[in-house]
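Problem: given the chain below (273 residues), write out its structure.
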Amino acid sequence: MLSAVLQNRALFQWVKYAVYLALLSNVYLFLIEEIDSAAALNTSVTSLASVFQIFSTTIDTAAWLVLLIFFELETYLLSDQTLRGATGRGIRVTRAICLATICIACWGYFAEFYGLLASEPLDPMQCGIVDDSWSLLKDLDKFEPLTINACGEGNWVILSNYDRVLATPELLQSAIWLAATDFINAAAWILVVLVLEVEVRAVLASRSGGTSDGGAIFSLKLLLYFILFAAAVYWGFEGDFLDFWDAILWLFAFFVIERNVVSWREETDSVAG
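Solution.
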């Protein structure tokens, strides 16, 4: 079925833009999820840094979507002559701003991971201060009001870097692994963009008489996409469906960009030949 879609140019374009629209809807879904999480923790925005920490996934996904659109323009819709003019420079400046935003969001993922590492067992002497104003960690970025007697049921730990949050050791460890996966995934995607940037510049250089050798970066891209696919599989088993679905959509979206680059390179090589 996939080969049939790839061979049917019109159908492929419909599928491609449907995926882009699905990614746009994910921005909204992540925003709702993070607003709910902030409300459960009684967290408010106090600085620009807190915005990136609270809404890191929403900001990250939105910036990636803009970046994707500009890659689509550069590798498929616009001519090489246009890309060498003011339009091309504008695209590169906008893409640099998006990449800077994505790097800040990546820091937000790391801050979330680091924040989960500090915890301490709930001391029975602290039971008097644990009331319904506390929250319970259910999963990464998912909290709910504490409605059970923590001192009377099971083992609990206090998250030292959070305000009045309890978790079971098992759920905390699961959240730590998911947070680490978020950070590794974000860092891998940043490297993918940097490699694609090098590849796009190489293709444009070959049009100007330079050389365009994609073999040097193929192995690196293969490793990065393997890491991203492994993260998607992990989310499929351990995370929630939205994370898994978003990861699969992004892999397909960048498959489209890679396909654009390959076609562009082949066109360049045929002209050079």
